[in-house]
Amino acid sequence: MVCIPCIVIPVLLWVYKRFLEPIIYPFISPFINRFWTKAAVKETPQKHSADECNGTVNGSTANGPKTVADKKAD
Fold first, then answer.
1. How far is CA 72 from each of CA 68, 69, rounded to the nearest angstrom?
2. Are 7 and 15 in contact (CB under 8 A)?
3. What's the pLDDT at 33?
4. Model pTM?
């Protein structure tokens, strides 16, 4: 058995996104843009030098995945 909020909330969100948001959004968008600026999006990430990265991305090297020895060797 599924609880009532687990059914009602997704249905209400779908109704809002599908039918109400296209009607309401043009009226509320100026207020949203005033409070929610895009300054955080405009900032560029800092570049790392090759010496700091050592050529690895998420634990793998350019030549292939990094091999990890098993900790439990019986």
1. 12, 9
2. no
3. 85
4. 0.42
